[in-house]
């Protein structure tokens, strides 16, 4: 885990032997499960350290304290939520994933890593965001899902409590995308509070963190029904 250790040191994070073993276990189980069920195209030992583990940890550049309640929307194989949970064991984590083959992996890996305080929510974001158990209940919401920022705002901000934040990893030139998303962000009760450049060893390829602040309640009609935010983004 030398690549991960080096990158984390740039973030001011050091891991215990237990945490290092958890990341090793995560790597082994991910590759093994991926040989049977397609979870990720990234399978190399160093690539997983950088493009999954360190990329997830880069969210700490936005000032994650480690004791907050975080929801990872469209968690897939657990990124970025589970690496953050390993780094911050006291974090209360929700992993929202609609695909059953992925939620099975999330359940198995959470148990094998010995993590507590993790809830796996097997629903679409559009449906879960209308559930009072999850709506506006999280201090932090993130999503590494590949989606336009306008759609991502509609799928994440409804989960965010007023005063909370959405941290959305992005890559490349996002100026036009952010312009298109301005209306959606405002309608969801949010505002852009910053865009943070990610410049870490092995991740010097134009990665950014878009940070949205939740400043007012999301109107009850949002998010719209399943599929609508992606098919017809608010502009």
Concise summary:
This protein is 38% helix and 20% strand. With 235 residues, the protein is of the alpha/beta class. The protein has a seven-stranded mixed beta sheet with strand order 3-2-1-4-5-7-6, with helices on both faces.
What does this entry look like structurally?
By secondary structure, this protein is of the alpha/beta class. 38% of the residues lie in helices and 20% in strands. It has nine helices and seven strands, in the order αααβαβαβαβαβαββα. α3 (45-57) packs across α4 (81-87). The termini are far apart. The model has no long low-confidence stretch (mean pLDDT 96).
> Would you identify the regions where 5 or more consecutive residues have pLDDT less than 50?
none
Q: Which structural category fits the helices and strands?
A: alpha/beta
Write down how many β-strands occur, each being a DSSP E stretch of 2 or more residues: 7
User: N-to-C SSE series?
Assistant: HHHEHEHEHEHEHEEH
Amino- and carboxy-terminal Cα gap: 43 Å
3D shape: globular
Instruction: Please report which band the strand proportion falls in: under 5%, 5-15%, 15-25%, 25-35%, 35-45% or over 45%.
Output: 15-25%
Radius of gyration: 17 Å
**Arithmetic mean pLDDT:** 96
Helix content estimate: 25-40%
Order of strands in the sheet with most strands: 3-2-1-4-5-7-6
The biggest beta sheet, please? 7 strands, mixed
Task: Count every helix, treating DSSP H or I runs of 4 or more residues as helices.
Answer: 9
